[in-house]
Amino acid sequence: MSDILQYTFFQNALFAVILIGLAGGIIGTYIVTRRMVFITGGITHASFGGLGLGFFLGISPLFFAVLSALGVEWMSRRNGVREDSAIAAFWALGMAIGIICIFMTPGYTPELSEFLFGNILTITHADLILFSLYTAGLILVFILFYRHIVYTAFDRDFA
């Protein structure tokens, strides 16, 4: 086992798993408490639309995932739609856009599975710095706004 850890890419992968696991534990607790577990599937499948647009138009797929999450929140707050219905709508929309755009993109897209599933062994030091900043920022926000987050997690209307 210690032989594996002599390679830098394994060390980067291990540190990334620790950082992302910490962030996922913090966010996951909030998501489960709010009964929004369905959102993880919705955002990931809506991101497929961003992946299709990214290949077709040459833009980043991450932008589409963030827009999908904000769209779910906007739709559920402003239009009175239940969150699970908004998530399902963005899920279907993202998948449809992704399939159409990938179909319309000329040629073969061999990097598609790399975008969909990723490869933890390709994480760089720059990625680790980004993950560290994200995790530190997340921890800071949860420390500063802990009471508000807990109140919102259990009863959004009362909070």
Task: Detail the topology: elements first, then pairings.
Blueprint: H1 8-33, H2 38-57, H3 61-78, H4 83-104, H5 112-117, H6 125-144, H7 146-154
Helix pairs in contact: 1-6, 2-3, 2-4, 3-4
In short, what is this structure?
The chain is built from seven helices and no strands. The chain is mostly helical.
List keywords for this structure.
7 helices; flat; 159 residues; 0% strand; mainly alpha; single chain
Describe, in plain words, how this protein is organized in 3D:
The radius of gyration is 18 Å and the shape is flat. The model has no long low-confidence stretch (mean pLDDT 82). It has 159 residues and is mainly alpha-helical. Helices cover 76% and strands 0% of the residues.
H/I helix tally: 7
> What share of the residues lie within helices?
over 70%
Q: List the helices and strands in order.
A: HHHHHHH
Can you give the mean pLDDT? 82
Give the percentage of residues in beta strands.
under 5%
Number of beta strands: 0
